[in-house]
Design goal:
Order of helices and strands: EHHHEEEEHEE
Shape: elongated
Helix content: 25-40%
CATH architecture of the largest domain: Orthogonal Bundle
């Protein structure tokens, strides 16, 4: 799922997305457009009294406004989106890279994606996150040290760039 807190991006900015992220945004836009069309058709079929009761009971106007905001944001993003090129051939971590990290006896895989696509529960991190910042530009076998704002220290070894 795409990050629900999609920001409005300046129209002069190119936005790099993975192919999966771009496809998910297109699906989300399609779903929102279908919801809008369906709700508008329902409203148009109702007489004035039914429409008023429906709008009050379902909060339809707020839903429509929220959908419109999301449609505009996603449309703006798609207009300026470029797909990240395959980064598997790169020897450095960059946007679109999937990495394997070792911390102690644990191994984890992360993919570095645009903030729009970031979802830590799916191991998709943005370059703005502490781990993402530390990974960008690193090479296989590099050590990564991260200090959290609360003073915790984390150490990883970059096992592989997949």
């Amino acid at each position: 799922m795409i990050n629900n807190s999609i920001k409005h991006f300046p129209s002069n900015k190119h936005i790099l997305l993975t192919k999966k992220g771009l496809d998910r945004l297109k699906l989300q836009l399609n779903r929102l457009n279908k919801e809008r069309t369906s709700m508008c058709k329902r409203l148009m079929k109702m007489d004035s009294k039914e429409k008023e009761e429906y709008v009050i009971s379902t909060d339809a106007i707020n839903v429509l406004e929220k959908n419109e905001d999301e449609i505009l944001k996603i449309s703006d993003i798609l207009q300026y989106a470029d797909i990240v090129t395959d980064s598997s051939a790169s020897s450095n971590v960059q946007l679109g890279s999937t990495v394997s990290l070792i911390s102690g006896a644990k191994t984890a895989k992360y993919t570095v994606v645009n903030t729009i696509e970031a979802d830590p529960s799916e191991h998709k991190i943005s370059p703005e996150s502490p781990l993402g910042q530390a990974l960008i530009g690193k090479k296989k076998r590099d050590k990564i040290h991260i200090s959290s704002p609360k003073g915790y220290e984390y150490q990883y070894k970059l096992q592989d760039i997949l």
